Give the backbone structure.
Amino acid sequence: MILEIAHLTVRAGQNAAFEEAFAKAQTTIASMPGYLAHELGHCLERPQEYVLLVRWATLEDHEVGFRQSPQYQDWKRLLHHFYDPFPTVLHFGAPASSIALRSTPAI
C-alpha cells in the first residue's frame, strides 16, 4: 500500500470554493482503480493550508492509472487553479525492514 501526501495551499479567500470543488472532485479519485481511501485535513493554525492523504494499492495506480487518465483532467480542471504555490506530492510505503513493536509486561 502507498500513502500519497499532498500539502495544499489555497489562494486567499478561496477556501469555501475549494472545499466545494473538492467535494465534487473526490468522487473522481474514489472511482479510480487502485484507490483505497482518502481524507482532506484543514490546518487550524494556517487556514489557507490543507493536507490531502490518499491511499493507493500501488504507486503505479496513482502515477499512471490516475495521472494519465481522462479523469485526471476533470480533477485538474476542478482543483488546480486554487493552489499557490502548486502542491508538493510525496509517496510513502512501509519501511523495507519494519520492526514490530511488542508490549513489555510490567515488572
